[in-house]
């Protein structure tokens, strides 16, 4: 069984999908999400409709997927160098400035990693990684006494591309598009 | 209070929390000059002690999808005041002193002399451990009187702290 931590979820904190690609990556600044999430999934929400024709036969109309994810709880991190600081700064800006449209648009990357070892060196590489444009929308600001929370939703908006992702637990994973 | 026997101990946390607790209680502005709390030590006649009731233990253990672990831990402890030859008024004053000390340690404002004092932050721990709360679980009460008329006044408190690390 694959340990859950090897399916990683990243968001770009640049919130600028037109940003020029770097030499070795797509130029986005990614952070890994999930420090306090015990559960997180890409909800595919398939648009499937089972119908029956006049001959009594069943057929299926599949109109694709409406993919989204929900991150709750997400605690605001104000510590300099904190793992979730960059994303919580951006989420607070979106919430406080009531941003919409391109202000909420960024890239998400979901990647499955594999650990290999040759006895002396351990390598962690992505088996697959996909990048997709998405809209990030904070759902609330506040929460209970466990800490200030700003849970958010990520809604995919298409332009899905395959590539490779570098392993990290923190900030700074690099995504490279397949050629 | 939860039954400590059902939970895993936080062995490293015990030492760290004990040191931070002792530093904090010995900074209490209501102590007389030269007066100090001692750890797990009963004075023959008079004195102040802190006793860890059962060590630190892990109440809840959570692991995130990234392998980040956070544990809710508990450190129950007793404050014991040894005194002898107390009349009724001194007993009332001692109980009041202990309850005032507990209010200060739980970060409530207390009056000491003409001043109102507050413990501004919980005792600081190192590494991934952070104290979230200190609470009083019993008021001060007379626990025992020995044959020499030495009295042990007891008060129970607990420290809730969080420990975080990556697994």
Task: Provide structural commentary.
Chain A is mostly beta strands. Chain A has one helix at 85-96, and strands at residues 7-12, 30-32, 46-52, 58-65, 68-71, 105-117, 122-138, 152-165, 175-177. In chain A, strands 1, 2, 5, 6, 7, 8 and 9 form a seven-stranded antiparallel beta sheet that branches. The longest helix of chain A has 12 residues, at 85-96. The two termini of chain A are 31 Å apart. The mean pLDDT of chain A is 94. With 167 residues, chain B is of the alpha+beta class. Chain B has one domain (8-26, 46-166): STM4215-like (2-Layer Sandwich), CATH 3.30.2000. Chain B is built from two helices and ten strands; from the N terminus they run E-H-E-E-E-E-H-E-E-E-E-E. In chain B, the strands form two sheets. In chain B, strands 1, 2, 3, 4, 5, 8, 9 and 10 form an eight-stranded mixed beta sheet that branches. Chain B has a two-stranded antiparallel sheet with strand order 6-7. Chain B is elongated, with a radius of gyration of 17 Å. The two termini of chain B are 29 Å apart. The chains are: A mainly beta (179), B alpha+beta (167). Chain A binds chain B through residues 3-5, 7-9, 32, 34-40, 169, and chain B through 62-68, 70, 166.
Quick structural summary:
The complex is a heterodimer of chains A (179) and B (167). Chain A is 7% helix and 42% strand.
Overall geometry of chain A: globular
Count of alpha and pi helical runs of chain A: 1
The Cα radius of gyration of chain B reads 17 Å
Number of domains of chain B: 1
How large a portion of the residues of chain A is in β-strands, by DSSP E?
35-45%
Largest interface: A-B, 15 and 9 residues
Largest sheet of chain A: 7 strands, antiparallel
């Amino acid at each position: 069984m694959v340990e859950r931590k090897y399916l990683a979820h990243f968001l770009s904190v640049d919130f600028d999908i037109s940003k020029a690609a770097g030499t070795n990556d797509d130029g986005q600044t990614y952070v890994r999400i999930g420090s306090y999430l015990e559960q997180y999934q890409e909800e595919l929400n398939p648009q499937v409709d089972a119908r029956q024709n006049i001959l009594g036969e069943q057929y299926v109309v599949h109109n694709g997927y409406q993919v989204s994810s929900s991150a709750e709880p997400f605690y605001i991190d104000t510590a300099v160098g904190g793992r979730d600081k960059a994303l919580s700064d951006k989420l607070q800006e979106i919430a406080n400035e009531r941003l919409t449209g391109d202000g909420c648009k960024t890239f998400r990357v979901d990647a499955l990693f594999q650990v290999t070892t040759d006895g002396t060196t351990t390598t962690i590489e992505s088996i697959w990684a996909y990048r997709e444009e998405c809209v990030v929308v904070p759902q609330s600001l506040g929460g209970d006494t466990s800490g200030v929370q700003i849970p958010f939703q990520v809604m995919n908006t298409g332009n899905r591309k395959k590539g490779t992702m570098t392993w990290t637990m923190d900030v700074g994973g690099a995504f490279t598009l397949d050629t | 209070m939860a039954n400590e026997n059902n939970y895993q101990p936080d062995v490293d946390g015990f030492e760290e929390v004990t040191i931070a607790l002792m530093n904090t209680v010995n900074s209490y502005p209501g102590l007389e000059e030269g007066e100090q709390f001692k750890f797990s030590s009963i004075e023959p006649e008079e004195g102040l002690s802190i006793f860890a009731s059962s060590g630190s233990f892990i109440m809840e253990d959570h692991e995130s999808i990234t392998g980040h672990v956070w544990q809710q831990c508990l450190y129950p402890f007793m404050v014991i005041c040894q005194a002898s030859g107390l009349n009724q008024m001194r007993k009332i004053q001692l109980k009041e002193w202990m309850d005032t000390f507990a209010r200060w340690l739980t970060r409530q404002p207390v009056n000491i002399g003409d001043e109102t004092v507050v413990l501004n932050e919980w005792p600081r721990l190192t590494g991934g451990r952070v104290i979230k709360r200190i609470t009083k679980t019993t008021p001060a009460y007379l626990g025992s009187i020995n044959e020499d008329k030495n009295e042990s006044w007891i008060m129970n408190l607990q420290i809730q702290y969080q420990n975080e690390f990556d697994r």
